[in-house]
Design goal:
about 450 residues, alpha+beta, Jelly Rolls, 2 domains, 5-stranded antiparallel beta sheet, about 25% helix, about 25% strand
Amino acid sequence: MASKRRQECGSADGKRKKKSCPAEAAQFGSAVEDEQVKRAVKEAWSRRSPYSEGDLELDCFPFPHCIIKNFLSSEVFVENLQKELLGLDFHEKSNDLYKFKQSDDLKKRTEPHIAGLREGLFGRFRSWLGEVLGVELEPTVDISCARYEHTDVLLCHDDELEGRRVAFILYLVPPWQSSDGGTLDLYSINSNFQPQSIVKSLVPSWNTLVLFEVSPVSFHQETVLLEWVNPAYLDISYQEQIQEEFEDSSEIQLKDFLKEEKFREVSEALRLTEIEWMRKGPPNKRCYEAASLDSLPPCVKACWELLHSEAFFLLLSNFTGLRLHYLSTGSSTDSAANASKEKEPSIPVCCGEVRRWSHGSYTLLHDGEAAQAEYALDLVLPFGCTDWQSEFGGLTCYVANEEDEELLTIYPEENSLALVYRDKETLKFVKHINHKSTSAGSSPCRGFYDFSFVYYE
């Protein structure tokens, strides 16, 4: 078969007629075809941990991205693909963000190698991506060819478009080095969630595919989440499960939320460090202690900053479906909130405290920070409450206004992030903490600490 000359496409009499050549099947390299590698990449991606095997490299700094060399297994196929692409008509595209030449959409092209690549991307590779990322992808793929020449440019952007989940680039370039330009630059971000500086540059390489998951901030995932939060909660598919459960009940508890070493570090600092605690009153509303933020040790301050960072607002939006930040795409859990007018882009709003609970601490129903808002999301993250018993008190109880029956009770639990969505007619209080012992001869219950925040849509 290899010695036979391929029949030219077209009519037998040589007249030009629109007749499609059969697509040449695109065969992917071993990095995509190996089932063991696929399982390992899926696990590493979900845990936001690096992974490398053969031609595939997954890196999570500054955000998860995957590099696959020798993406297509046949060198002849890649060369013919390049020839077909270079034969297309290209259109100049130029504005403040970019300047380059681009082909029309390749969805309807009939050239055999372009058609073969398209079928492979739409089929087997889309299935591979869906399994690796743990998401269900739409059956269509936007695909075009871009040609960059001297002085062309594409500036910093986030690739976020409505419905887009994954972005990828397949490089078909001659031998290349960084001095030639055209590197794919990845940015770190500042405290305002904006791109700050280039921390990694990828040099284009022949038959190499680069892909990354798209989010409203995909040019700069906030690394503080990767540092503090249990990787399981950064898995997009798991976030979708959490959101479904939260939308059903308007509350959820996320166990083992912080990484174990971070939780342990904060727990010890709260217990051992000299922190300035201030008594909160008046007694007809509340009685507990709150930390002076200026006196917090570094690790506790860092945890505080995590919980009111813009990155965390976006994470909460994914957990709850609430629109807690203008970059989020969530819809409110409560239909009445959906009826409110469209919000303008704004800075997230929240208030919070680091609290210490001990014998005699409590809050009463008059205590309502969220009374100013129609809806609010409560967050509580406890520390130092191992073996806490309900008879000790310290439970957070929710009741309807002017009603005695408790709607919901949240028990203090180590490293368990409690989220509760409520309207202004739902009130909360923390039950009085006493010194009741669990058995004869046992020591009285100790107090505990928590981070408490209220977030407003």
